[in-house]
Amino acid sequence: MVSKQDIEDRIINVLREQFLKYSDEVLDTYQNKINSLVRWYVSKLPAHVKKSEADDIASEAKIAFVDSLKTWDPRKGELWTFVSVRLKGSMQDYLRKRGGDPVAGMQEWISSAAHLYLAFNKQIIYHDKIDDVLHVEHAMEALDEKEKAVIDGYYKKDKTFKDIGKDIGLSESQVSRICKEATTKMRCYLKEHPEEDKQVRE
Fold it and tell me: Of 47, 71, 96, which residue constitutes the final position of a domain?
């Protein structure tokens, strides 16, 4: 005797086959929602990434949409509810895979930039209001490699001066001195280059 579960599974398999057969038509039906989701996701990224990766991210979302038709189970929710989650994951994975490019690990980069901004605000390194975490992150370009390692370890990774010293082969007091010099250098950089914040926004 065929169970209810078997019947439902067969129906769902037929539905999936039809969706895949007419995937272009299904894609057209959801195109506006896909575009809106892609625009929302891309809007969260830095300006240079929007310019260089927006089209590829949109293509990746379309591919993910069609792939998701193969695994959607209508018993567990509406198609778009399921698909939207898959699309977000696909776009994130796409950026993570850009390992050798300047946009490598963009999600992690955004997170660390935000962490740096919040940490700097807490330490009152820059007294004027900073609206864009990218401006703070950009100031790290003024540092040498050793200074970057100290700032990265102390502010982003919450390491102690002692632990940072072990990583880069310096004493705790040396790391402390470098941290003070680096933060002063970044503060000066931020005050001397306010126009770059405007360029980032554009």
Answer: 96
- Per the confidence metrics, is the pTM higher than 0.85? no
Q: Is 121 part of any domain?
A: yes
Rg of the chain over CA atoms, in angstroms? 24
The closest of 153, 143, 157 to 188, measured between CA atoms, is 143
Identify the domain boundary among 63, 96, 129: 96
Q: Which two tokens stand for residue 67?
A: 């792939």
Tens of pLDDT, residues 133-159? 556 667 777 888 899 888 888 877 778
Q: Provide the residue range defining the domain that includes 46.
A: 4-96
- Please state, in angstroms and rounded to a whole number, the distance separating the CA atoms of residues 116 and 121: 9
Rounded Cα distance between 35 and 110, Å, is 22
Find the angle CA(42)-CA(44)-CA(46) to the nearest 5 degrees.
Answer: 85
Other beta carbons within 10 angstroms of residue 186's beta carbon come to: 23
Alpha helices for 22-160 (secondary structure H): 23-43, 47-68, 79-96, 106-123, 133-138, 145-151
d(CA 101, CA 76): 38
